[in-house]
Design brief:
single chain, 13 helices, TIM Barrel, eight-stranded parallel β-barrel, 2 domains, seven-stranded mixed beta sheet, alpha/beta, Immunoglobulin-like
Length: 482
């Protein structure tokens, strides 16, 4: 068997015959979140019954085919925000559909994605006492304990419904807790803090109440806590570490908003000068500024929480194509990888905005290829499990699926010795693929599906591990052998 230390850091790529194993046997749900940068994917959802179309199975299949291993399913709550009755989604000539039914359908799509399913997080937008995000300034949930308990009760009901599913890897409790809506958008963090205290608003206590409710039925389910005020990283210092050991902390990264939410195409340029909430002044936004200034509150929080609290960039994206848009998105995802954070892009194939497939088709951008490259990229960690500096990638193998052989491309920004090994499901070494010196260029190596003795291996699950310079790679990628 692989030693425990090796198992901590190395479960890189699964090669599987059709129907041989469901996703996620090796690690618990929360252990996956503890792997730096393990989850990468998209937000996806239906919003309301005025859309021309709903989400379909093919969209979840597309995510799986892109090597994404996470779908954050946005949903309204099971209970109406006023009556606490079942939350109606659609009424047509006497036929009633509820949000619970819509969520059941989307969860089924996730379970069936690509034949083996894609891990999913359920993110809740509304519920007793709470309207949806931008209208939060009128919600009584922030100060009414009755509404808070009813909301927490609804979350417990939702968690219990999907808990048995191994693909249900996280529950995001309150989408963008935003007590003042957009009224105080962009104010200094100290003023936001003072305003919440003046109105008797304690979002951290509300989270604790919700978590305690869910824990009565789901003691081990990973739960997500978002930052206040659109979950903007500028205000993440107002987040407190929850007294629970299975919490993921969620930040949404749209800074600068004048770039990410520009309504016209190619009107703004990155890198460029934009308003900074942190400095309360204009500043030049680039990767260094995003990492060192914008995301500093998140990095400081994680350090204060012991350095190992899982973090996800739960939303990132641009509304319309802009000058330097690909570089902007690449910088955010790269920072996430360097910090060991997970990430999910907003939003998959839905609506006139944040519609990257259409941007690629109409404006000849390369967003979908960019996302696919990041999904198939492995996160480098040092021997202590901390995300290591420097680019270190292992591309998706090709062809995929494969029958006789497959090629994997490894690349790094620095030279070194590479050691690649393959293990079977019992942790026994099957094959050592490469131990080569390279000079920072791409290294191609091919596995012919045989063991060291030249015998064809049996159909099943096999694990790749790659080590160089005391660093190992971690990925949720899958390759299928036929």
């Amino acid at each position: 068997m692989l030693c425990n230390r090796l198992l901590r850091y190395v479960v890189l790529m699964v090669i599987m015959a059709a129907g041989s194993l469901s996703w996620g046997q090796s690690l618990t749900k929360f252990e996956k979140w503890r792997q730096p940068g393990f989850f990468k994917g998209f937000n996806i959802s239906e919003w309301n019954n005025v859309l021309d179309r709903g989400v379909i199975q093919a969209e979840f299949d597309s995510l799986k085919n892109m090597s994404a291993n996470l779908a954050i399913i946005q949903t309204q709550g099971f209970r109406d925000e006023v009556t606490f009755e079942k939350h109606v989604y659609y009424i047509d000539e006497g036929d009633t559909t509820y949000w619970q039914d819509i969520l059941d359908t989307m969860v089924a799509y996730a379970r069936n994605a690509g034949g083996t399913g894609i891990p999913y997080v359920i993110c809740v937008r509304t519920g007793p006492g709470r309207t949806d995000v931008a209208e939060d300034k009128d919600s009584p949930i922030w100060t009414s304990q009755d509404h808070q308990w009813r909301y927490a009760q609804m979350l417990r009901e939702m968690a219990q419904r999907y808990l048995p599913d191994t693909l249900f890897v996280g529950f995001d409790l309150i989408q963008e807790p935003n007590p003042f809506g957009d009224v105080l958008f962009g104010i200094p963090v100290s003023e936001l803090d003072s305003a919440m205290k003046a109105h008797g608003i304690d979002v951290n206590a509300l989270y604790t109440r919700c978590i305690d409710s869910i824990r009565k039925v789901a003691p081990d389910l990973p739960l997500m806590v978002q930052g206040v005020h659109w979950s903007n990283p500028s205000y993440f210092s107002l987040v407190k570490k929850q007294p629970d050991d299975k919490i993921i902390y969620n930040v949404h990264c749209y800074n600068p908003a004048d770039f990410s939410h520009q309504d016209s195409v190619f009107e703004q340029g990155y890198q460029g000068s934009f308003w900074s909430n942190e400095l309360q002044d204009f500043a030049t936004f680039n990767k260094a500024f995003l990492r060192d200034v914008v995301y500093k509150p998140v990095r400081d929080f994680r350090k204060s929480a012991g350095g190992n609290a899982p973090v996800i960039v739960g939303e990132l994206g641009i509304s319309h194509p802009q000058i330097g848009g690909e570089q902007y998105l690449d910088d955010i995802m790269t920072i996430a990888g360097e910090e060991g954070w997970h990430f999910a892009i907003w939003n998959f194939n839905n609506g006139a905005q944040f519609y990257y497939q259409r941007m690629d088709q109409v404006h000849k951008t390369g967003f979908m290829d960019l996302f696919a490259r990041h999904f198939s990229r492995l996160t480098s960690v040092d021997e202590k499990g901390k995300a290591a500096a420097g680019r270190l990638d292992l591309a998706q193998n090709f062809p995929n699926p494969f029958s006789s052989s497959t090629t994997i491309v490894y690349r790094s920004s620095s030279p070194g010795n590479v050691e690649v090994r393959i293990y079977d499901r019992l942790g026994r070494e099957v094959r050592r693929l490469a131990r080569d010196h390279y000079a920072g260029d791409d290294v191609h190596f091919t596995w012919d599906g045989k063991d060291e003795a030249g015998n064809k291996v049996q159909s099943g699950i096999y694990y790749f591990t790659l080590k160089t310079g005391g660093r190992r790679l971690i990925s949720g990628n899958m390759a299928r052998a036929r």
